[in-house]
Amino acid sequence: MATPDTPTPPTASVPATADGNRMSRGLTLLFAVAGGTAVANLYWAQPLLGFIGGDLHASTASAGWLVTATQIGYATGALLLVPLGDVLDRRRFIPGMMLCAALALIACAIAPSLGALLVATTLLGFTTVSGQLLTPLAGDLADDTNRGRVVGTVVSGLLIGILTSRTASGLLADAAGWRAIYFVAAAVSLAFALLLSRAIPPVAPKAHLPYPQLLLSVWQVIRQERAVRWTLFLGATAFGVFTLFWTGLTFLLSSEPLSYSVSVIGLFGLIGLAGALAARRAGRLHDRGRSMPATGWGWAAVVVSFIVAAFAERSVAGIVVAVVLLDIAVQGVNILNQTRLFALAPGARSRLNTAFVTCNFLGGAAGSAAASVLWSVGGWTAVSLTGAGLACVALLVWALGRRGPLLSARSG
User: Fold this and answer.
1) 221 and 228 in contact (C-beta within 8 Å)?
2) pLDDT by residue (tens digit) across 208-226?
3) What pTM, to 2 d.p., does this model score?
4) Do 8 and 204 form a contact (C-beta atoms < 8 A)?
5) By CB neighbour count within 10 A (0-12 exposed, 13-18 middle, 19+ buried), where does 256 fall?
6) Could you tell me the end-to-end alpha-carbon distance of the chain, in angstroms, rounded to an integer?
7) Which of 30, 42, 121, 355 has a C-alpha 20 to 30 A away from that of 78?
């Protein structure tokens, strides 16, 4: 496969790291926690949709567009900013993006109306890309035998951040109002900006390309390797059904007959946390050459989880089972997809991650938007059946591609 940075001298595609700069357990943990706190910014509003809507005199369905706006901003930031990880000094770039995210969080906290909050959350999504810069950096610093484990740990941190954000958001909103969570998140973002500026080891840029050519090279790598295209479709579908489920679940838990408070709704994120911890081992399956069959089992589990959810509209126990199963499956599939992509072009991991994250969050934005529409039309049943149908499509794509289009000489 031709690399997407062919104009670059051969030595520029290799990160200048010594053995002492590779991913230690401590640095891996820091990347995971910092990335998790960053990506949590995208989901503070999700369990608070009814709360925010009431405070800003808008319907819950209208407030649901906050999640969509944030994800659109995130997908745009991933497309325009994450490729710069291959050409800039990430020791400065990543903390700088965390500082920008802190400013956007403050704008969210002081937003006077739903329209202003929509603008602020879009800017928050655009600037909250540090987690997706840390993931390919971890892949660069890890050696070949441990890359799946390291990337799996960092990605699990991002996923755990998504899930725990709902719990933290609900509890803090109940105690101090929904604006408080954005002020606290801004302070946390500033703290990690300082920590990472000191902890990230020096790594030479892997390419020297003008910005327009850098963006063009993202599309080049997609066009040149069909395994990338097929994997991007599976990734976008996985994240789409994930946000479809969680946005719809917020509507279900906040409406009659359950009518849970925002703090109780947030606690459901802790249930999904068990799935994130279990999915952490998915990267090791890649290291052992089991990536492809494990992806198929993951999609089968997604189908089952939505079927369980469809019959659990009035059963909290059934919802808990669906949450755990869905999170294990989706997060495992996500880690396996991302690790396989990183094996395709070591000199362009940030750009591969750009394609992966952009497609994922476009899928996520579509999923959250669809949840609002489906809830208005057919409630929880419509949400669950749509999720099951999309998962069946993805399972079919996996079955067709597992012996050809999804395979690469360098993927597991």
Assistant:
1) yes
2) 788 888 888 888 878 877 8
3) 0.70
4) no
5) exposed
6) 17
7) 30
